[in-house]
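Tutorial handout. Part one gives the primary structure; part two gives the three-dimensional structure as tokens.
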Amino acid sequence: MSRTTVSNAYNRPDQLSAPLRARVLEAARRLGYPGPDPVARSLRTRRAGAVGLLLTEALSYAFRDPAATGFLEGLALACERAGSGLLLVPVSPELADVTAVHQAGVDGFVVYSVQEDDPHFKAVLERPVPTVVCDQPIGVEGVDRVGVDDRAAMLAMGRHLAELGHRRIGVLCMRLGPGRHNGPADEARQAGATYPVQRQRLAGLREAFAEAGVDWAAVPVHERFEHSVDAGQSATAELLAAHPDLTAVVCTSDILALGALRHAAQHDLSVPDDLTVTGFDGVPEAMRAALTTIRQPVLEKGRAAGELLLERGERNRPRTVTLPTELVVGATSGPARAPERFFSGW
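Part two.
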């Protein structure tokens, strides 16, 4: 048989009759030939057949964090529909080694929520492949982006709390910048945040509280480097120990809020009678806990990011897709308790 016939059996099976293709594959099996070398094929076609997902977290984060898991599912659905593979490229946010980015055999990158000056993101931009950013950074020239209006979403949450009469409010936020900072984040650290999503969410709260006459300088903000329920629980303990008069704890993620609810349960605090707790994301665990939160379409984020990347060759100009959010009022927010109900032991 000719080389073309054998090649068609693997690469263009529609060009051969079913019996002829079966003969080729059976002969290859007897000879121990597994088929064309995918690496050699990618060199010839200049296509890897895969989308790279850049995560500046440990690999397990993609399967542990509910928002990341939902995003990953949506991205996988888009890749599946296009017949493309998906390569996870996890890197540590504390290490500057960009070798994994340089060596990734992909046709393009989806970058999942990294800080503005992240060296791995800069390495992605050096590659001659299309790139889509989910959430952050914002406003990168020539790069597609999919996200939500974080500031407007948190503005709605802040107004909800103000309408309930809350004026003594604390905030738990995800990491604002590099370095393992855990504890109070003053206004200078907030202003210098290199994670725009957190910066925008805090800005939305600041605007809502200002409308209600609350001085943002008097609002304690506690930051956690790790994004986990345990981190939310420990941050809540610190926050309430330093500010026992608080009537509400606003969290910039559901995961941190679930930690706050755990702390409340372990210290016999009634939610929302003693303490209102709110989150952001709308992950399944938060919905089951009836958490008051901002629900964002994380699966649709992933799907939209994948579609933007896979259609990039059909257009010249970058696009931005802003998806809607929804304020979900659950069972964890209620009217502010009276000032005289002061809990010194929590």
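Part three, for discussion. The mean pLDDT is 91. The chain has two domains: 50-148+297-323, 150-296.
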